[in-house]
Amino acid sequence: MNFLAAVPAWCWWLIALVLVAGGQQYRVVVAQGETGTARIELADYRLEVAERDRRAAAKTRTEEQRRQAVANEEGESARKKLELAKGRAADAESAADGLRGEIARLRNGHRATCDTIAAQQRQAGTSAVVVLGGLLEESDRMAGDLATALERSRIAGLACEAVVDRMKSTR
Predict the structure, then answer these.
(1) Residue 42: count of CB within 10 angstroms of its CB
(2) Which residue in 23, 59, 66, 131 has a CA-CA distance of 20 to 30 Å to 4?
(3) Which residues contact 166 (CB under 8 A, 6 or more apart)?
(4) Whole-angstrom Cα distance, residue 78 to residue 104?
(5) What is the pLDDT of residue 49?
């Protein structure tokens, strides 16, 4: 134990200090290594999340474009059907105008014929033809308006149903 006593006390303190400092330095190096590993793992995780987000956004855009294409296609189909219905309505209106002209001609002809009949009979007959002709014209005009509105509504409803059905069937 003599050789231990030969070493001064301050050396023992220095040796202890070096050991403690070395231990702390070792802990710092290990912690830096773990921090570096954690940073690498965090960077990898961020890349993975970014890639997942990019794929999800691309998938969402693709689905949105598909749905928009379906809606555009059905909208175009509905517009074509509406144009066809407008053409048919114009034809029907033209035919109705012809009928109205014929009613007016008959009414005028009836007035001319009735001039030869007695005043009482002419008044009753004229009023009946005038009333019936007016009712026929008004009901024909209303029927045309209602048919046009109904056709537009039907085409719009069918277009909406087609869009929804195609969206459901292609999921």
Answers:
(1) 10
(2) 23
(3) 70, 74
(4) 38
(5) 95
The token duo for 4 is 């231990």
3-state SS string for 92-119: HHHHHHHHHHHHHHHHHHHHHHHCCCCH
Widest CA span of the chain, in angstroms? 165
Q: What is the DSSP letter of 121?
A: H
Helix (H, G, I), strand (E, B) or coil at 1: coil
Residues with Cβ < 8 Å from 162, sequence gap 6 or more? Answer: 74, 77
Query: Distance (Å, rounded) from C-alpha 106 to C-alpha 134?
Result: 12
pLDDT digits (tens, 9 = 90+) for 132-148: 777 777 888 888 888 88
Q: What is the pLDDT of residue 124?
A: 55
Most confidently modeled of 45-49, 68-72, 74-78, 139-143?
A: 45-49
Residue entry with tokens 């009735």: 114
Q: How far is CA 119 from CA 19, 109, 114, 115, 126, in A?
A: 140, 17, 9, 8, 10
Question: What is the CA angle 143-149-154, rounded to 5?
Answer: 120
- Look up residue 51 and give its two tokens: 């890639």
What residues contact 88, with CB distance under 8 A and at least 6 apart? 151
The crossing angle, in degrees rounded to 10, of helices 119-169 and 9-114 is 160
